[in-house]
Design brief:
11 helices; 33% helix; seven-stranded mixed sheet; alpha/beta; single chain
């Protein structure tokens, strides 16, 4: 049972790699999404046409990375991005001296963000990865001021088609698979989900819905109870939210928040959990059934290689299971019998593109019908306009 859909996880288990960290909930009314399943997307709503930036030899390239946290924590959001940067560095044979890291940069502090990015530029960085939603506006402003520097920003909706793009991925696909794991394991029929933000945040809501839809596909009677912390990173609040869900009888705890504390709470209570961002079985080995993880090295390597080869064209990026950007870690030995087969069956359809999670008519928990039979929601809707909950979700 421990070795499932290995075609994705060969890379994923080397680099168990997160959502868009920020200290504030983003407003996602518009985006650069398209209806395509392609990883490379068209330009954003700026309307600018893509332009190739000058080639920079590998030994002359310097890269800045702006982190909301500290990767030395060894788990969670920032750690997974650092793992992706390290994978890029090693794959492209760069030295660590060519990477300038700025840690604990508060995404609600515009002055701190600007200072961190300007320090990178002053240190010679020709490319900057900004790993929090809250860094978007500063990237936009500095991209205009420094046209020879590339700014690549996670999950936002702005880009200029020249030296400022955005990148993200179809984590909802891995969420669906993890929902299958949770739905097959629960004995109480109550599954908890600690969410950073409520239904006003599409990123979190789409992931929660996909998780709940995975649960429903194998256990239609089960309910998913969601509790919101109103923060991407609030270790104590995340633990409290998980405990509150456990107190009402939830025996599996999923999460879309940055720390492993929901999994630690699950282990202490003797229930199970679904980790996120990094492989959280290392944090709570007695509880974690699997973790939905990012492999950011897929994008970082592609982006930096394009600069080295002179092919950077500022396209936005939206990867998924098919290119290994997202996936699941190995299933625990204590998953329910048949889980590996159920996960692999769904993963096969998602990888092939013959089916996607938000396909057909979808009933919400208010009885509304979303979508059309035989059609899938387009990428723009999935990234920016999901403000409803699936029918088996109960808000706490």
């Amino acid at each position: 049972m421990k070795h499932i859909f290995s075609s994705i996880l060969i890379v994923m288990m080397i680099l168990t790699l997160s959502g868009c960290g920020s200290t504030q909930t983003p407003d996602t009314d518009s985006s650069a999404g398209s209806g395509s399943q392609s990883a490379s997307l068209a330009d954003s709503d700026s309307g600018s046409s893509s332009a190739v930036m000058p080639q920079i030899p590998a030994d002359e390239l310097k890269i800045g990375v702006i982190y909301i946290g500290d990767p030395s924590e060894g788990s969670g959001y920032t750690y997974t991005h650092e793992q992706g940067i390290v994978a890029m560095r090693d794959t492209l044979s760069l030295s660590d001296d060519q990477i300038v890291r700025k840690t604990n940069v508060d995404s609600s502090d515009a002055s701190a963000i600007e200072s961190a990015m300007l320090e990178c530029i002053e240190e010679g960085c020709q490319m900057i990865f900004a790993t929090s939603w809250g860094y978007m506006d500063t990237c936009e402003a500095l991209a205009e001021e420094y046209p020879d520097v590339i700014f690549s920003h996670i999950c936002g909706y702005k880009s200029n088609g020249v030296n400022f793009n955005n990148y993200y991925g179809r984590m909802y696909q891995a969420r669906y698979l993890s929902g299958i794991v949770a739905g097959m394991k629960t004995e109480s029929g109550k599954i908890g989900y600690v969410a950073a933000w409520g239904s006003d945040n599409t990123e979190v809501t789409a992931g929660c819905n996909a998780f709940a839809m995975g649960v429903y596909s194998v256990n239609p009677e089960a309910k998913v109870y969601i509790r919101v912390t109103n923060s991407w990173y609030d270790p104590e609040g995340e633990r409290q939210a998980a405990q509150a869900l456990i107190d009402i009888g939830c025996d599996v705890i999923g999460q879309h928040c940055d720390s492993p504390n929901p999994q630690l709470a699950a282990e202490e209570a003797g229930v199970w959990g679904i980790g996120f961002n990094s492989d959280m079985s290392s944090d709570a080995p007695g509880a974690v059934l699997t973790s939905s993880v990012w492999n950011w090295g897929v994008y970082y390597t592609e982006a930096v290689r394009s600069v080295i080869e002179g092919t950077w064209d500022c396209e936005n990026y939206y990867g998924g299971l098919s290119d290994g950007l997202v996936g699941l870690t190995d299933l625990a030995d204590f998953c329910a019998e048949g889980t590996a087969e159920a996960v692999e069956s769904a993963a096969r359809q998602l990888r092939s593109g013959e089916w996607d999670v938000f396909t057909g008519e979808i009933e919400t928990n208010t009885g509304e019908i979303i979508g059309t039979e035989g059609e899938s929601l387009d990428d723009n809707t999935i990234q920016n306009n999901i403000h409803w909950y699936f029918k088996n979700i109960v808000e706490q």
